Protein 1
Amino acid sequence: MAAAAQSEIMISDIVSRSNAAQRVATAKIGAIRAITHRMKILALNALIEAARAGEAGRGFAVVSNEVKDISTEFATLSDSLESELASEIGGLTKLAEAMAESAQGNRLMDLALNAIELIDRNLYERSCDVRWWATDAAIVDAASAPDPARCAHASERLGVILRAYTVYLDLWLIDTNGTVLANGRPDRFDAAGRSVADRSWFRSAVRLATGDDFHAEDITVEPLLDDAQVSTFATPVRERGDAHGAVRGLLAIHFDWEPQASAIVKGVRLSPQEAQTTRVMLVDAHGRVIAASDNAGILSETLTISTNHQPSGHYRTGSGDLIAFHRTPGYETYRGLGWLGVIRQKV
């Protein structure tokens, strides 16, 4: 059994035993009060009988008064015991509940980290792909001298890559003016000859200093890819494939975001009960929901996560929902884009 599950069972046991102790204490104090009440009644009856007996009952009256005083002290003691026990048991219960809250929050926070780490490692591979493929001889030749034959060969080469790397929608070779020279799936996407000079990833990537650099774009909808959700990585194609060579064009690779991200957020390990009330999300640095286990609000919903400038944490919302989050830690040369793994569990 996992340590987190064992911890939850122990905390649950503490709460259960604390509640049981409260019930036992309440029952026993109730019994003491019943006995004290009977003692008071007996003492009162004894006093009445002593008064009737006159002088002969005076000694018995003294004993009866003493019994009455003892029963009063007993009642005071039971009240004090009940109050102190209630306070201590209540404190123990609150401590156990706080431990349970912290354990569950930390568990969801770890799951949020796991989700964002899977994305980070996936996107790190994309950053490696774009830098590697930008040095391919067919790509460099077509960017350097973009005649029809070279562009056709580059398109064939990109197609070969796509048959092996099924996580991509398309790969584009682009000239320095922003015109697509060749793409890997011309039979599916009519991208060649179209301008992408207005894309922010193009404007950023074409200015990169060396072949070791790349640009990673936040999730967008790409019109030339049938409005698919994509994660685009781009880097310049340089003369002779040299990391410091002159820029001859640009390679952009479009990661098929929706199915890959959906598999990650839906693959977070929740119990069947938790799955009914829990939403797993990836949220970008602007608060946009870019993936969600319920498929709702993707790229249209904006969340405000109270991180308090911390990389990770958990808290309760005003409605009582538990929110856990973890900011992207990045992976290797991919530093991440400030995204968050977020899990929201309804009460």
Protein 2
Amino acid sequence: MRVGVIGAGMYANLSLNNYVAAGVEVVSVCDVVPERAKAAAETFGVPNVDATHEELLERAEIDLVHVVVPPVYLATISRDVIAAGKNVLSEKPLGVSAEEAADLLQRAEAAGVVHAVGHEMRYDPLHRHAKNLVAEGFIGRPVVVNARDFTNYATNPKFSTFYSCWPRMVADGGGVMQQHLSHTIDLIQSIVGPITEATGRATTYQTTAQVLDPSISPAKLFELGAEAPTIGTVEVDGDDVVTVLATTATGAVLTVSSGWTVQHPTGLAWEIHGTEGILTLDGEGVLRGARSGEELRELTATEDVGVQGAPDLLRRCGLGVAEPMHLPFMFQEFARDLSQVIAGKRETGAYATFRDGLATRRAMDQVERSTVRA
């Protein structure tokens, strides 16, 4: 598979690194700041740098275009990708409204292109195993789901300057709901089905944040961490704690909470109660389950949902806070899965499609319309 990448900020640079690790060829990269694209190309051996995304889309050899830009620009650029007849991977969330997401889905299906949303967490083996267990009837019909995921991205010096720019601004598609909780909603929906009704409460506790010196590329933030130079503070309005109450098409009741301004992250944890049993995932990344009348026991994922290069994921990850950074391995598996579908070696993959992205976007829009902001 040959990829073109639109956007060369912090996450794009992580993606470039993982495409290389997955054996995927990156043909070209572009960015509105040309120096960023040039630096990324030099670092990862990308042979071409295009001045605009329109120029990149003219490259006939590109099989997939990865759109890695702030959400407010995702729909416009993704429409251009689809119009060019290219398979498209859009970062999350899919647009800044359900209307944008529905339009992208319609366009992608009409064009017959492969379409995916950047929810690489779907490739965590424990979540894939849980999805299979639910589909096989291990817990019967899911009826109650409680999930929570709290991180310190906005307080940890390694991340905090990045989370003071557009990811904290509502107008740009920022806030913890769109930039983090969307992952959790997608994961839960992949296991128990799409949300049909949702309401919630969003809060912004941190109203100011440090601003990264504009001379520093966001790609350098993991390297610089707390040493990243800043130029003062800015007011931010993106939510940093959100709680969602929702129901699924099959009648399950969900509560999902997320935040990124805590001092001590607790990781992703959830419990799914069904008519015949239970599945639980704790913050340490341990999956357990039991059917009616059984004792709760630890469950290990099966080999068929494993991740190349990270066999330990079969027993523990679940995106637990105590685990090593396994997300790069998941993205690499994501890239390999997409390449198999694009090459015609399989009809579908485990990734989130634009249809899944629309379901998540609709749920977030319902929460946004009904939420009470503290």
Protein 3
Amino acid sequence: MISLVSICSPEFMNVPPLGILYVGDALKKAGYEVRVSHFTPDEIPRQAEIISRGKPLFVGISAFTSNQTRFGARFSRLFRERCESPVVWGGVHASMGPEQTLGEEYVDIVVIGEGEETAVDLARTLESGVSLGGVTGIGFKDNGEPVFNEPRPLIENLDRYRLDWDLVDIENYLTPAWGRKRVINFITSRGCPFKCGFCYNQRFNRRRWRSHSREFVISEIQELKGRYGIDGIKFYDDNFFANKKRAVEILKAVDLPWEGQLRIGYITGELAETLDETLCQGICFGFESGSDRILELIRKDQTTEDIIRGTAALAKYPAIRVTGCFILGNPTETREEVRKTIDFCLKLLEIHPKMSFSLGAFLPFPGVPLYDLLVDEGFVAPERTEDWEVINRMNDEMELPWLSWVTKEERENFVRAGRYAKLLQLRYLKIPVINKIPVWRLSSYNFRFPLELPALEWIHRTYSDEGSPLSKIMRKTVALTRSRSRVRHS
């Protein structure tokens, strides 16, 4: 038996562990019994006990650079105390920082890159008892010394593997959204051909985009519709529209509401209309900055004019929820450029009044193209794998040592700017004063004494929860207020 583990914060437990569902499928096809365990940090002691009692051939831990590294370290130590089976780390963090990961006393082997074929090769080698030196795509310890084998080629035919939903209880991952009840997360491709300096893809996927065939994706989704009654999809592809023709053909064939991530440079008037026709419910764009200098520095291959042009095209289809994501505190960024980004958000809001925004600090992930510049500018990497938990967008205390001008107060301003940016949708409420506060705070870059912030966030949460009785009352009240307002001004 082989045990595959993913440990997530409670708020992410409705997102299936897609990576290890693929790895589990490969191992099952090779004849192995596989158990997938997906649990929260409070379950670590109990799960370590349960999994160790099964004496697996190996336990595989998938971790992204965030608090998952701390969760994985804690589990690995407890498992090691109870069982001698090899502890194998894989996923993005182990692949981007394999030397440090393998250097931990609780890690025996690291899988670097895609795990499907490597896991099968590793399992067979461990069973046979021969040296791990012939397993490409791994690092291991030989008499305590780290050894890294040759990298494994990327998988060319992704249709050989699929998400094996039999490894988990799929009901845990069918969630409500957009008025639907059984929306699932899904992935159809890997990688991205672009070269963004903050992204893992250049190293992990070697700046290549590969996909399941159109026929394979349509078949898999139709099976999910028939077998589990799914009524919507959230695509987790890094670049679903890398092949626009393929993406549109899939969307038209499956005929389900959907959301996903796109590049704003892809958007034309024709594509915007197609997104609307294919039941698109929401799109998330990585706008990243309102400064063209920063966009060039981070190698985004887009300009502020591209962003404005795409946003204007989408404004004609207000039923599509558009979210623009921005990064504050990029390497070498100035205070003026941060202000420029915030002003740019407000400019986009004038173009598309129903846009929403996400502002977060730059995250110095190990191994990304800009990493060396970050180090040159003052970033010091965490000394232990588990300490990478600080690299987390939810971490309000994260420092930005690569920018000498960012004081503790300025870092707090970044956090508050992000919180107020989420509240820009309060403009819809048409409630005097309240609906103007977020715009005023952001436009003046004044975040001192934000006493009203918790109350505004409560109003936003309540109004956004379309299912709550209070939200329904608020919506009716606001609708009535708007109606009376129109009558008074007519």
Protein 4
Amino acid sequence: MTDTALDAPTAPVRARSVPLFARRYALELRQQMALPKQALILALAVVAGLAISAAILVAAGVPANELLNEFVMQTLVDRQSLQAVLFQAAPMILVGIGAAIAFRARFWNLGLEGQMIFGAIGATAVSMFGIGPPALRLPLMGAVAMAMGMAWALAPALLKLRLAVNEIIASLMLNYVAGNFLLHLVYGAWKDPKDSFPYSPQFRAFERLPEWFGNPSTAAIGLAVLAALGATWFTGLSRAGLYLRFVDASPRVARALGVPVARMVLAAVLLSGALSGLAGFVVVTGQEGRLTQAFYVGYGFSGILIAFLARNNPLAASVVAVLIAMLFVAGRNLQVFYQIPFAMVQLIQAILVICVASSDFFIRHRLRRVSRGAMEG
């Protein structure tokens, strides 16, 4: 090569333009996303779910201009509808918080309905056998309901911790055992002798939740709010709540750091069962006034949905529970006025779950555009 060739100016290198069809996308895990962005993505997912649900309802025959009126105005302005929302919201808050606490310990408690059933059975047993003086009967019924809920939650917890049995299967199957035991009671020894219908004798006045300020749902909502505040302190301010954060992040790392993982899981599951048992107590002493054969239907799935939407936050679970209760009450109104089947309400719940689950993908991942030329280089 000559010196002239070395001294010759080099031609400028031009960047190659990559055609649009040659671009590729790489899926990457996010290290962390700011909480405001997470809240925005979650809100957009909920809005998308509501939009899909609205389209389905319009296609089913509900006028588009009546959706806002049915789901917001009629449920919040009308006194009877608002009372029905509060009635529905109180047990939903309790089961939602119970599910959230268990999920924080990475224990997927799907036995909420079974724990509700045994809580209600325990409360009814106190009434039927006249345990305790009348002045203390109602608190005693609540305490026994919580104890029975804890006892029914203890079985899948021990199976998980001692024998490594999958808690999803164990807790879910125990729901059927509890449901059949309930049918055995209301169709058998506990059947009301007055009319022989499959429910227990009616509770006496001092065995019912009291009406505060002329509203029978106030006491139930008061219990739910106290439970929400207590759960918020437990998960956010107590030492046990700090341990649960470690367990939720990584049980192996928590165990290596000296966190009593097994004890924390057991404590979370027992507290979850106690809250579910208390929800059963609220339903039978507040809404039903007796033990019935289907008082628990729908609460288990709703509790899981509430915990999932609230990201296992007790205070957020309380707000979500009220919204889900509004959905239930509005669904019943749609049944009456537009002949919409109640399965449509359950479909809306499922759509919301799918949309929120999809939002978790965008929170944990991101798409980065990569050109083919860069990939080859």
